[in-house]
């Protein structure tokens, strides 16, 4: 699947970015209701489990009978159908969060966001960014049905996890901040709880003078046979406000080959729902297209951050 996607793109980034169709229905999953996801929905992650396709995502809003403050929380839905420009979902857990913020002074007391799910020993392990007491961290919650989750706790420092299985281990790519931008690091685990860095150095960083020279963020991983593919956000001038997505591949998750035509996807037109910034490209294959769900904002952090889940598609080669 992913090699076919790789082969769709030329060495010309402008041609690659213009090959995508941004859905006229964006945002395809908007903020809704008047409580925990009334302000934003974002950070899509997709996984197959128990013959269903699960969508995990972040919501932002104010829950009744809580502290009266806005927080990020995790929600879940089942994907019913996908076309090249629309998606039908069914909310799970009665539309309530599946992972909530922690108690005051805990590592995830302010926000839980950036879900990344993997099937491990018959369960869903969902890793997430945690903001609270102490440095930005990655937390873990587990579930036997993909809906009801139990928190395990803090796993490690870092944020924006992406996870995949390799050789019966969980491999986790995560962001660390240095030199005014984010770089990707890699750790592995035999039990999904205790992780060790695979390398002390970043495994992926942008090139000086390139479109992703300052910061690499919000990766998503796809396994296709013995090859692993990564889609990620990049920026040359802001740490966490990417304009473009790139594509890279690896056989060992440590050494990555960027696509020679990167970036392969860009923001929508100015004023569109994804015209300001984009994060977390989650790939879906349909009969005739490759589709990405992603967090899009029509404006920037400084004046109109409006994170909602958007969609774009690119036709398969005939």
Outline the fold blueprint.
Layout: H1 2-7, H2 13-18, E1 21-22, E2 40-49, E3 52-61, E4 71-82, E5 87-91, E6 111-120, E7 123-131, E8 137-143, E9 150-157, E10 159-166, E11 169-178, E12 181-189, E13 196-197, E14 215-224, E15 227-235, E16 244-250, E17 257-258, E18 265-266, E19 277-285, E20 289-297, E21 308-315
Antiparallel strand pairs: 1-21, 2-3, 3-4, 4-5, 6-7, 7-8, 8-9, 10-11, 11-12, 12-13, 14-15, 15-16, 16-17, 16-18, 19-20, 20-21
Label the CATH architecture.
Answer: 5 Propeller
Which whole number gives the mean pLDDT?
A: 96
- Portion of residues in beta strands equals over 45%
Unreliable stretches, pLDDT < 50, 5 or more residues? none
Report the sheet with the most strands, covering strand number, pairing sense and barrel closure. Answer: 5 strands, antiparallel
The CATH class designation is Mainly Beta
Helix proportion of residues, in percent? under 10%
Distance, first to last CA = 14 Å
Count of distinct structural domains: 1
Instruction: Please tell me what the overall shape is.
Output: globular
Structural class computed from helices and strand pairing? mainly beta
Query: How many β strands by DSSP?
Result: 21
Which fold name is given in CATH as the topology? Answer: Tachylectin-2, Chain A
CATH superfamily: Glycosyl hydrolase domain, family 43
Instruction: Output the helix-strand order.
Output: HHEEEEEEEEEEEEEEEEEEEEE
Number of helical stretches of at least 4 residues: 2
User: What would you report as the Rg, rounded to the nearest angstrom?
Assistant: 18 Å
InterPro entries: Glyco_hydro_beta-prop_sf (IPR023296)
Protein name: Glycosyl hydrolase family 32 N-terminal domain-containing protein
């Amino acid at each position: 699947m992913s090699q076919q996607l790789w082969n769709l793109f030329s060495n010309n980034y402008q041609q690659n970015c213009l090959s995508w169709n941004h859905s006229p229905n964006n945002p395809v999953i908007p903020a809704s209701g008047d409580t925990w996801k009334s302000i934003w929905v974002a950070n899509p992650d997709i996984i197959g489990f128990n013959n269903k396709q699960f969508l995990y995502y972040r919501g932002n809003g104010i829950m009744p009978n809580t502290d009266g403050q806005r927080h990020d929380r995790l929600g879940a839905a089942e994907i019913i159908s996908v076309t090249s420009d629309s998606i039908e979902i069914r909310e799970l857990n009665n539309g309530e969060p599946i992972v909530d913020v922690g108690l005051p002074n805990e590592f995830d007391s302010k926000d839980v966001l950036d879900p990344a799910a993997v099937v491990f020993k018959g369960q869903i392990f969902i890793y997430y960014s945690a903001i609270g007491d102490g440095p930005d961290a990655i937390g873990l919650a587990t579930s036997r049905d993909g809906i009801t989750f139990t928190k395990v706790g803090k796993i490690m420092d870092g944020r924006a996890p992406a996870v995949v299985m390799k050789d019966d281990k969980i491999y986790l790519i995560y962001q660390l901040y240095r030199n005014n931008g984010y770089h990707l690091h890699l750790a592995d685990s035999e039990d999904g709880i205790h992780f060790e860095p695979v390398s002390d150095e970043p495994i992926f960083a942008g090139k000086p003078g390139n479109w992703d020279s300052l910061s690499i963020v919000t990766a998503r991983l796809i396994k296709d046979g013995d090859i692993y593919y990564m889609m990620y956000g990049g920026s040359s001038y802001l740490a966490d406000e990417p304009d473009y997505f790139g594509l890279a591949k690896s056989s060992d998750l440590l050494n990555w080959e960027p696509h020679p035509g990167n970036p392969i996807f860009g923001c929508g037109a100015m004023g569109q729902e994804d015209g300001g910034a984009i994060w977390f490209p989650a790939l879906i294959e349909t009969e005739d297209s490759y589709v990405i769900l992603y967090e899009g904002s029509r404006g920037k952090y400084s004046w109109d951050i409006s994170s909602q889940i958007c969609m774009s598609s690119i036709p398969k080669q005939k």
